[in-house]
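Retry 2 of 3 after timeout on previous attempt. Resubmitting structure tokens to design endpoint.
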């Protein structure tokens, strides 16, 4: 199940390509384009509200020799507690996510801070397709063709200062629209965080789409994080705040149950969750369970980030 890295060698991607140079490379030319034309005349809701096709996607940047999970399964079997705690309730409540005037507040230890419209935030970031494994701590997994761009490209634009050691993300807090937030299932707003080097890793992306189309609300429209070597709960949906901090942030599931959900949450077949053993997983659509891979199959790319850490302790 090789990871195939196919950088287009645009300036932004040369660094990433260099990183992967010694590894399995799969080179293929494609034109990098920006989303600026797409966004030029569009209100935020046009970008995000419909599950319309996205134009000008650079295909095959990261591919995988594994069957993709059908779109129907990915968009109806979801975890998005703001839209309900069942697997299918987020899809049923999808229209409640207020996408019309989406703004992202950039705060903390960045040179560039302030409110950004979605359009301003995405401006100049070519969209790429990246086919990643996605593994939930509940023991199921999928293969999803995300459409997005490396988080590191945005962070380079925002310029973290010396005080930036972590990047923190928050989801919209709007109980008037989001039924789940009227319940005490989780501390709201949903918050996640990454160490700066994890956030800057070339596999970490911000996704705006999947299967060539805009993200459906239940999958985290208009903008979500995807960190393929970590359990799915790290991949926070519907982001409205990005903050750079010196201190390790309090994150939602870790706050809820620190003995069950670590801050790092790297996929690790050797560390069981109290309720779900992690050595095997069920790929949605398959009958037999398959072995879970360390770092969800991305060990070659990311294990060095944790070389001095006890991965039993820092789960
Ligand atoms: N982000 C927010 N804001 N709210 C959530 O409830 N659930 C997380 C994560 N991001 C969640 C979230 C969990 S537990 C998982 S497994 C993934 O989203 C699920 O992503 P998917 O539904 O697109 O498969």
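Retry 2 succeeded. Sequence:
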């Amino acid at each position: 199940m090789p990871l195939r890295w196919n950088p287009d060698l645009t300036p932004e991607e040369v660094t990433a390509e260099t990183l992967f140079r010694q590894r399995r490379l799969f080179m293929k030319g494609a034109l990098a384009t920006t989303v600026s034309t797409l966004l030029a005349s569009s209100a935020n809701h046009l970008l995000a509200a419909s599950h319309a096709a996205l134009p000008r996607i650079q295909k095959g940047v990261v591919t995988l020799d594994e069957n993709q999970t059908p779109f129907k399964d990915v968009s109806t079997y979801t975890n998005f507690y703001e839209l309900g705690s069942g697997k299918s309730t987020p899809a049923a409540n999808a229209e409640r996510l207020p996408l019309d005037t989406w703004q992202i507040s950039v705060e903390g230890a960045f040179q560039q801070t302030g409110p950004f419209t979605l359009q301003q935030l995405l401006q100049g970031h070519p969209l790429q397709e990246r086919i990643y494994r996605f593994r939930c701590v509940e023991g199921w997994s999928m293969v999803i063709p995300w459409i997005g761009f490396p988080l590191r490209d945005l962070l380079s634009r925002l310029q973290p200062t010396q005080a930036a050691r972590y990047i923190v993300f928050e989801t919209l807090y709007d109980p008037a629209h989001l039924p789940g937030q009227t319940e005490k299932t989780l501390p709201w707003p949903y918050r996640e965080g990454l160490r700066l080097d994890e956030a800057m890793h070339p596999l970490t992306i911000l996704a705006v789409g999947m299967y060539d189309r805009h993200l459906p609300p239940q999958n985290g429209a208009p903008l979500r994080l995807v960190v393929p070597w970590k359990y799915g709960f790290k991949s926070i949906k519907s982001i409205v705040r990005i903050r750079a901090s010196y201190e390790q942030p309090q994150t939602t599931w870790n706050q809820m149950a620190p003995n069950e959900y670590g801050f790092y949450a790297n996929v690790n077949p050797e560390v069981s969750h109290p309720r779900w053993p992690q050595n095997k997983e069920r790929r949605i659509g398959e009958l037999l369970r398959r072995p879970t891979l360390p770092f969800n199959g991305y060990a070659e790319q990311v294990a060095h980030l944790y070389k001095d850490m006890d991965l039993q302790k820092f789960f």
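Attempt log closed. The longest strand covers residues 140-150.
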